[in-house]
Known about the structure:
By secondary structure, this protein is an alpha/beta fold. It contains 14 helices and twelve strands. Strand 7 (159-161), helix 6 and strand 8 (178-179) form a beta-alpha-beta unit. The longest helix has 18 residues, at 114-131.
Amino acid sequence: MNAELDLLVRLGDYERPRDVADRAVQAENLGFDRITVGETTGWNIVPPLTLAADRTDELGISNDVISPYGRSPALLAQTALTLHDASDGRFRLGLGPSSPAITERWHGQAFDRPLRRTREAIEVVRAVYENGTPAYEGEIFDIYGLNYERDVPENPPPIDLGTLGPKATEMAGRFGDGWAPQLFTKDGLEDRLEDLARGAELAGRDLDDLRVAPIVRGIANEDRDLARRKARGTIAFMLGAYGPYYGDSVAGQGYPEVVEEIRAAWQERDTESMAAALPDELLDELAPAGTPEEVREWVAAYGDLEGVDAVRVGFVNEMTEEEKAVTMEAVADLV
């Protein structure tokens, strides 16, 4: 496989923040290029990623993704610069518009103008990087500005955007340093890469200037049927219950009837019917799920798509520790 290999871990799977560092050491020993974690309503990302950085030497450190509704732009810059120093320059900052549920029901903010807020947050972070101050006048943020009390590094953390739609992805190409999409078929990803390239062109760049690292959630098990049952439940839940965006994206990739049926089942909270509504064809398009050999071949083919720089492999629900180890070892053979 020509692409790099990232490992996405879920903080909710661990009992203590330092357990994430143990996973990072395991990933580095297996040859993964980068570890990344998400942040929703559980742990703050900074402690576990700081511990992971301290325990590793070369492994890249990332997050997928944090929201401009949950942190002020200046705090986003502080978070990035802190993790940059903790990792000796191995950190990449992941930002994304988030969702109405997390924004409104956790952070207590109105989910208003998410793309504009994300763009301005990026510009404020870059202002801190370049000028040592968040001073900024925009439509969302109007900041007089104080000075960052430390020296800003010569090469501050790159900014990756987690987006799905065409306009949001164009924004990622124009203002970001990388793109971390999720739940894309191969054809769907290739279509969206055109939007990313258009945004990059508007900024006087091309796709080679951005790190494209799509997220895929999978599971390897010699018991193929078990692996696919667990993956099917996870993907169906993401399409039907994770807010509108994932479902809308996959519907736009050619599966509107499937998404409609899964959403209807979710209205009844019928998770078995949700999973049953996800056909093998779509499961095969979206997730590496099956025997270790099948998962390895799937990830290799995805990583060989033109424009993909890394495949970010995450786990599905209900996986045992043994299944996680088997899955990591299966894809690690590609590096």
